[in-house]
Amino acid sequence: MSSPRKVSDSTVRRLSSYLRILRDIQSDGTHTVSSERLAELGGLTSAQVRKDLSFFGNFGVRGRGYDVGDLRTALTGILGLDRTWKTVVVGAGRLGSALISYPEFPNQGFAIVGVFDVDPSKLGRRIGDCEIRPVQELRDYAERESISVGIIATPRVAAQEAADHLVAGGIRAILNFAPMALDVPPGVTVRHVNLAIELEGLSFAITESSNVPTTIETGDAD
Amino acid sequence: MSSPRKVSDSTVRRLSSYLRILRDIQSDGTHTVSSERLAELGGLTSAQVRKDLSFFGNFGVRGRGYDVGDLRTALTGILGLDRTWKTVVVGAGRLGSALISYPEFPNQGFAIVGVFDVDPSKLGRRIGDCEIRPVQELRDYAERESISVGIIATPRVAAQEAADHLVAGGIRAILNFAPMALDVPPGVTVRHVNLAIELEGLSFAITESSNVPTTIETGDAD
Question: Which of A164, A179, B19, B141 is the most exposed place for a label (fewest CB within 10 A)?
């Protein structure tokens, strides 16, 4: 507990998972929850749950568990979900258009305020409340409007250029749907939604089950 | 190395990653690659790379590394990417429509042959080559057409019912975009694309960097 260090990605994912569980049980009318119950619902050990939550404050009441409402409010604040982040989408194709209408973004505080594309034939058209603007204006727009988050929904070949514009415009968080790794400076967080990897996982699972039984083992603990 | 066991999810993800790297370096004209170079490009240790690949056969040539073409072919086969999987989409809204047009699906061997929705006003309309059919026909269709994969792109409330129809129709692999866990029997593989978790990770990162420095630490090794 001495030297501060960065919270790991997997811890943040577990915090997300706790928050989702708390929402569900609160809507069922549950007011307190034990670390054992949270662990069971999240597929974790209760020691892990107590450890994760203890880093962020003292939420538990001994012998009684956690207050669901208090813990939910605390996690919402820790995850920054009580704020609104101004967000732009780069790429106004089918995927970009679907994302702009995706209700999870505003629900989570990501307000999409601008859409950018390279295709001159799309410029000036509207998707939802946003007019499609040329990608050349992205940097200035992001700077002027203090945009926090960029969503890249371009084809692979345009993704790095989109990232460069976003970074130049001062954006520190990118959600990348393009099937490639982005080169960004330290201090910029990229989350990659890689459908190809999910598809390959599915393909592997059904290949394996339709073959003769394999005798493969792995050395992984997971 | 004695008793066979299931290949872990993280091993499969690393195989996907190796395959992506091999494609990239092959298109640059590289013919052989060392485990050290693969490790460097994938952000892993060379011991991990050698261990992963040794489970699936003896691809390496001592002192020379792996033949890029041979290893690529082998991984493509292991991941089942040399086959075509008949795939249906449930949910013909914006997300479903975007997915039907997403080039990564056919590129990875997932041929979308059917689209289903509950909304009577959508029935009979076409998306791409597919006519939108009523979800009540899903089970029989999946059985008759030997569908391997189902993609759920419905709202949260309709997702479990969609999964039930898919499972009843004999489908063993589901890609779930709905923001909820699905209840499926053993032997059915579900991959969950959870944008909410990615969004919360981004939100956490920018909250953390815009606050006063935190003194949080985690107990994780990752």
Answer: A164
From residue B209, how far is each of A150, A177, A215, B11 by CA, in Å? 16, 23, 47, 32
Overall residue count recorded for chain A in this entry:
222
- What Å distances lie between residue A208 and A31, B110, B167, B172, CA to CA? 44, 16, 18, 11
Question: Chain A partners of B110 at a C-beta cutoff of 8 Å?
Answer: 199, 203
Label residue A178 by pLDDT band (50, 70, 90): confident
Lowest mean pLDDT among A13-17, A174-178, B160-164: A13-17
CATH number of A9-78: 1.10.10.10
Q: How far apart are CA B108 and CA B83, in angstroms?
A: 9
Interface test with B, best of A199, A210, A217, A220 (most B CBs within 10 A): A199
- What six digits make up the tokens of B64? 């020379």
Q: What is the CATH number of domain B85-197?
A: 3.40.50.720
Q: Does A13 touch chain B (CB under 8 A)?
A: yes
Residue of A104, A110, A209 lying closest to B172 (CB–CB): A209
Q: What is the predicted ipTM?
A: 0.72
Residues B93, B186: Cα–Cα separation, whole Å: 29
Six token digits for residue B97:
């429509």
Q: Do the domains A85-197 and A9-78 match in fold?
A: no
Can you state the percent helix, strand and coil of chain A, rounding each to 5? 45, 20, 35
What is d(CA B81, CA B107) in angstroms, rounded to the nearest whole number?
Answer: 9
Of B5, B201, B12, B148, nearest to A192 by C-alpha is B201
Where do the domains of chain A lie? 9-78, 85-197
Measured between CA atoms, how close is A16 to chain B, in angstroms?
Answer: 6
